[in-house]
Design goal:
Layout (H helix, E strand, L loop, with lengths): L1 H29 L5 H5 L2 H25 L8 H30 L5 H4 L1 H19 L2
């Protein structure tokens, strides 16, 4: 069980780092001039890290919930955590799929998808905050 908790927290760190890295890339690329394309080329890498992290969080989270908490009803704050984590998974999947399609077709990512990036950070904070509350 300790190994599962370790993987869960490692995935949390990976996802948070990927989200913050993408945010920093966005800000820095606006001021980078000729280097902007090089910086923005890193975004898909961080998006893939974020996807791997959120998938690992879901796998280990369900495992921890089933084994450690015996699938107990943990209340409305836990439901809010699941909603935030579910929306986070959907947003990261959408970003990765749209990014792959944009690369394949040579077109820019839709603006609506680009706006999901900052939302992932907010969803991460909600999911982590509610998890701290529930599992305290």
């Amino acid at each position: 069980m300790l190994a599962v908790k370790f993987l869960h927290l490692l995935a949390l760190m990976m996802g948070a780092a990927a989200s913050i890295a993408n945010l920093v890339l966005s800000v820095k690329s606006e001021k980078a001039g000729d280097a902007a394309a090089t910086l923005l080329a890193l975004r898909p890498v961080f998006s893939q890290i974020g996807l791997a992290a959120v998938l690992l969080i879901w796998i280990t989270g369900v495992w921890l919930y089933a084994v450690r908490w015996d699938s107990a009803a943990l209340g409305p704050v836990f439901i809010l955590k699941l909603i935030a984590a579910g929306l986070l998974l959907v947003a990261i999947l959408a970003i990765n799929l749209a990014g792959a399609r944009a690369k394949r077709t040579g077109t820019p990512m839709p603006m609506a998808i680009q706006r999901l990036g900052p939302a992932t950070l907010v969803l991460t904070l909600i999911a982590v905050g509610t998890a701290v509350w529930v599992f305290d």
